[in-house]
């Protein structure tokens, strides 16, 4: 059996991180729009953290992979 392609593994890790961030933003928007019954401040926190995560986590992962030679 062939070894899995490391580039494909990294690609799917990045996509999972981005999907999680988008999901967090979506849930935050649902809370802010009063569709989910949670405090509005929770929605704003999720929205901001999800947006930051969407842009920063993939860059941090890629930088670590390059630094470690993976």
TrEMBL record:
<protein>
    <submittedName>
        <fullName>Uncharacterized protein</fullName>
    </submittedName>
</protein>
<feature type="transmembrane region" description="Helical">
    <location>
        <begin position="41"/>
        <end position="61"/>
    </location>
</feature>
<feature type="transmembrane region" description="Helical">
    <location>
        <begin position="12"/>
        <end position="35"/>
    </location>
</feature>
<keyword id="KW-0472">Membrane</keyword>
<keyword id="KW-0812">Transmembrane</keyword>
<keyword id="KW-1133">Transmembrane helix</keyword>
């Amino acid at each position: 059996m062939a070894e899995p392609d490391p580039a494909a593994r990294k690609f799917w890790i990045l996509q999972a991180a981005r999907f999680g961030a988008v999901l967090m933003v979506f849930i935050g928007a649902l809370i802010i729009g009063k569709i989910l019954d949670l405090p509005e401040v929770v929605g704003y926190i999720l929205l901001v953290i999800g947006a930051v995560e969407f842009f920063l986590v993939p860059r941090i992962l890629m930088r670590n992979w390059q630094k470690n030679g993976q």
